Amino acid sequence: MTTTNQTEALPLRRRGPSMADVAREANVSGQTVSRVSNGRSNVDADTRERVLTAMRKLGYRPNSAARALRSGRFHSIGVIMFTLSSFGNMRTLDAIAVAAADAGYSITLIPVPHPTQGEVAGAFDRLSEEAVDGVIIIVEAHLLDENDVELPAGLPVVVVDSTAGDRYPMVDTDQAHGARLATEHLLGLGHRTVWHVAGPERSYSATHRREAWEQTLRAHGAEVPAALVGDWSSESGHAIGLELAKDPEVTAIFTANDQMALGVLRAMHESGRAVPAEVSVVGFDDMEESRSFWPPLTTVRQFFGEVGRRSVEALLSEVESGEREGSTLVATELIVRESTARPPA
Amino acid sequence: MTTTNQTEALPLRRRGPSMADVAREANVSGQTVSRVSNGRSNVDADTRERVLTAMRKLGYRPNSAARALRSGRFHSIGVIMFTLSSFGNMRTLDAIAVAAADAGYSITLIPVPHPTQGEVAGAFDRLSEEAVDGVIIIVEAHLLDENDVELPAGLPVVVVDSTAGDRYPMVDTDQAHGARLATEHLLGLGHRTVWHVAGPERSYSATHRREAWEQTLRAHGAEVPAALVGDWSSESGHAIGLELAKDPEVTAIFTANDQMALGVLRAMHESGRAVPAEVSVVGFDDMEESRSFWPPLTTVRQFFGEVGRRSVEALLSEVESGEREGSTLVATELIVRESTARPPA
DNA sequence: AGACTGCATGTTGACGTGAACATGCGAGCG
DNA sequence: CGCTCGCATGTTCACGTCAACATGCAGTCT
């Protein structure tokens, strides 16, 4: 029996050309191809050209799996998050993706469809199998606490907008600063006090905004009305706004996000209370649309892009040099538009 | 010279335990560990337990790079998109991520920060090095056409909301159907004709919506006013709305997305034209906030989740069985709220 | 009893890359 | 002139996994 005809059995996917193929084509060793592929300087210009030509001719593309196996680096950052359908998360993710791309990393999304115990734990389990060098977590704090999930040891982690800042480096918007800005703006206009439409009880940012609102009120000797708790949705803002509209004492409202502010605005219109003539409203986030609300919304701008950028920076610092950074706060800015004015005389 | 002390030089990152370590710990061969790791059935219950224990003890996690190298599969889907800061894109991405996770795939984001020639080409180049089994492209059509970018041959592709449906399978919302629904709704209420605030000239979905609006008008023998072109932003909707508000003939406006509709609404309020008593407005998208606009917006709901799910389905069908599917259209639904009414008598 | 089957488990090698370690050649220098 | 140094290039091997092919053992059938 002579050499059987070597039937190219490969029943699976056709693999692309490898370094060896390029090497053969260019008449060099595989190592030289590797050097060219990685842009090393110690290759003769002629040789380099020959290799590049061979690469183009064969349509060679480096196999990232082999590369990762060899180097232990995936050049990818995992991002664990719940729904993307939140203005802030999305903006943050966008910035993370861009910052990562600039640094030569790609983003692997690890969604947690439903924030139940099991799902969260599942996401973290799955994480073990993901090809990532580090992880950025954008998840409501209490879910991290309740699920005492164990992150794979040795995996660099940065946490955004959440507690757990004691365990991991954290990047966050300066919630308290923003809330103070909003509250003082209203107080400064002459309002006796400021009502607050808060986010969900267990949300990290909601809690911080609420506490800062309360502290600011106290610091100014203003009465502290009970906070009204919403769920971030414009719908909940609307429901709460309807209640608030009934009380003629209410002349200033600080809403924990723009979406709820939108609902409040609608409630005021429906109740025939003029904004800002009778009632002033301040939001939080400065989403794209806020300037087109009716009236255009005075709000606290968050720099999501900055948060994303800093997260990547902090994470990559740990990934690449092992240096774990401390936590960072990103400032906020008050954007005054037309939904606030002096209280009615 | 005796065996030098084998200094564990590894200067780079500490690697986690490998199959070999687990095998040693559990006193089995590496292959058996592999079998357990992949849930094969042909392993004795005792042995399996022993291996699992060893895995836990050592904190073993499979190396996906090695796995991918061996199998040629990354179990990851690349998503190429511009800014995430668009309501629709984000919702679609969310659905894609969830659908992919359900199928055991993760998502690798490949952002294209600025839609310039170079950037797009760059993203596609980078793609060559990405560890993905297939790609979903969510990019404005004209950018694909203008950049005659070459996708790596043999890489399965699905295109969302774009042309290029001739080259690749496409999944899209039935734009025309939605626009017809909106236009007919207004006509049905008794409006003489319907004005249109369109999206950017070269946007695929904007064009389809606009064409369908025009055709519907013609089909009903209604006069076709010139379309006014915005850029999707609420700000542009506001500017156009201000113009429209000046013309007392205008009683019905179909806006190509909800954000521009928000701007139109604000313009009407500022101009003292009542919605819907004097002017009716219909949007497109049904974003979360639309129900809380003032007045709540009648709009065309898009099922982004469905688009995402179908994209993944189509892509994975090609990835896993090589079967290339045709293009799909996802229906839309008209959501009637309070921004539309019969024209003033 | 002998051959054969089915199953758990082990051994070998290859996937594509790149670090570490050769090799080989010409220039520079005492 | 002989030695060394610098540089381009080549060779070898391991990264961790899993398919393919052994091996070995307990039943089962004729």
Secondary structure: elements and pairs:
2 copies of one chain form a homodimer.
Chain A: H1 19-26, H2 30-37, H3 45-58, H4 64-71, E1 76-81, H5 87-102, E2 106-111, H6 117-129, E3 134-138, H7 141-146, E4 157-160, E5 170-173, H8 175-188, E6 195-198, H9 204-219, E7 228-229, H10 234-246, E8 252-255, H11 258-270, E9 280-285, E10 298-302, H12 304-321, E11 328-330, E12 332-335
Parallel strand pairs in A: 1-2, 1-3, 3-4, 4-5, 5-11, 6-7, 6-8, 8-9, 9-10
Antiparallel strand pairs in A: 10-12
Helix pairs in contact in A: 1-2, 1-3, 5-12, 8-9, 10-11
Chain A binds a DNA duplex (30 and 30 nucleotides) through helix 2 and helix 4.
Model description:
- By secondary structure, chain A is α/β, with parallel strands linked by helices.
- Chain A is built from twelve helices and twelve strands.
- In chain A, the strands form two sheets. In chain A, strands 2-1-3-4-5-11 form a six-stranded parallel β-sheet, with helices on both faces. In chain A, strands 7-6-8-9-10-12 form a six-stranded mixed β-sheet, with helices on both faces.
- The interface between A and B is large, with 63 and 62 residues.
- The structure holds a DNA duplex (30 and 30 nucleotides).
